[in-house]
């Protein structure tokens, strides 16, 4: 695919403009020995950290601060990995697309696994939440394959806002106890499922109309 656009995301989240200012300021200041692939691979380290802190949180809930710290670090490396590659003309466009998003999935999986260490999940809420997250990822990749437009933000809500949400949940659990997550997750699952249905309906409608226009031509 000569016009591969996996490194160009369409649709902006609420914090997009602020993030772009941060990227513009920070990218030239990243040390030369830190390469684009270095930043991408560091998501693997943050994923291990999330599992370790999740395991420890079953003994002391304050270890959730560690999980929140891993989320912040993963955000920083994820924000700058592609920007560093473009700034230095590394050329790892398709590799970055593949490795970055696969490791994002690994990080999210580890995050939910870490919660399973200390949250009783009698109804499989964490499992269904992972399915919803996977649904959004599959939708993004299939839509990209059909249109060459890579969209990862919906209704102004993207990965950054999601990270802020997890940090907020961690903070609330530290303050109010583990029961907060058990009460909060079913509502989050319902909202996420409705949002996924809306997104899938919208995308299939767009692709239907594209097919019909091409047919008439």
Question: What does the model show?
Answer:
The protein is an all-alpha fold. The chain has a single domain (9-216), classed as Up-down Bundle (Four Helix Bundle (Hemerythrin (Met), subunit A)), CATH 1.20.120. It contains seven helices and two strands. The chain has helices at residues 16-26, 36-57, 64-87, 93-116, 125-147, 159-176, 179-216, and strands at 9-10, 150-151. A two-stranded parallel ribbon has the order 1-2. It is globular, with a radius of gyration of 19 Å.
SS-based structural class? Answer: mainly alpha
Number of helical stretches of at least 4 residues: 7
- Which range best describes the helical content: under 10%, 10-25%, 25-40%, 40-55%, 55-70% or over 70%? over 70%
What is the highest CATH level, the class?
Mainly Alpha
CATH architecture: Up-down Bundle
Q: Report the major sheet.
A: 2 strands, parallel
> Order of helices and strands, N to C?
EHHHHHEHH
Instruction: Give me the Rg, rounded.
Output: 19 Å
How many strands? Answer: 2
- As residue ranges, the low-confidence spans are none
The CATH superfamily is identified as CDP-alcohol phosphotransferase transmembrane (TM) domain
